[in-house]
Write a structure and sequence with these properties.
There is one protein chain. The chain is an alpha/beta fold. The protein is about 55% helix and about 10% strand. The strands form 2 sheets. It has a 4-stranded parallel sheet, sandwiched between helices. A two-stranded antiparallel sheet has the order 5-6. Helix 7 links the parallel strand 3 and strand 4. Helix 5 packs across helix 9, helix 6 packs across helix 7 and helix 8 crosses helix 11. It starts with a helix and ends with a helix.
Amino acid sequence: MKYRRWVLAAAGMMLAAPGTGDAQQGRRAMNAEQRATMAARQAEALLVDMRMERPIEALNSVWIEELTWMEVRDALRDGKTTAIISTGGIEQNGPYLATGKHNVVLTGACEGIARKLGNALCGPVLKLVPEGDIDNPSGHMRYPGTISLREETFRAVLDDMASSLRAHGFTDIVFIGDSGGNQAGMAAVAADLNERWRGSARAHFIPEFYRYSEVFEWMESELGIVQTTNDGFHDDFVITAIMMTQDPASVRHGQRLAAGKASINGVSIADKEATIDVGNKLLGFRVDQTVKAIKAATAGGN
């Protein structure tokens, strides 16, 4: 019954949607009975699809964009009703790190968070975010390679992504961001969605993911690693080590070794495997802290 109600509503919306050309004229010419008949046929056809058994084993992935629609459907039926929307950015990050630094971090982070939660899937990383004014470049937009969104565009995309996920049955939509400029927009959109949804689903902004000061404190107290200098770049050992867990080329590890530049803020990254090991520990700490915050938010409201 749940899927039948959803399918009938979807078919009704398809018929009600504005069209152009011959299709629009054809709909205008239909009488109420014909429209109802067409809606019923579309609903039944969609219902058949929704009831169809998946013919092959599901891919072991938590990324919605990597899954088939049937795999997403079945994950929802199995209780994976939390969806994570992560926001990164394309910006200048000094001479060594790829402009997609935050997106690289989120590839590992969202994967770890979703798997540890056990009831979550990851939406595509939102790779474009506000990075400064475009027409009169400010902030990171002063540097080549940066791509910026207007704040209103960023918030509209977040709203549409979250609303799409809710429409398909996700009941908890989680926002996390790896850049300081993303935080206020995510908080505002989550509040707006909760006001609009009024309990039919919930949006949660999780600021704990971006508390880098806690990551540095943990690194110093638990791992004994301390940055002794500041190289003056938009870069640090924590972010570099975490990026290396995903792709050492994203921090230009090979080139830096060749140039004698395999360190950041007084900490060596020359030993690739050792740095990746530390990066995994740092990433694990961030995942654990974020999972705790998500569990608290989804258990107790927003």
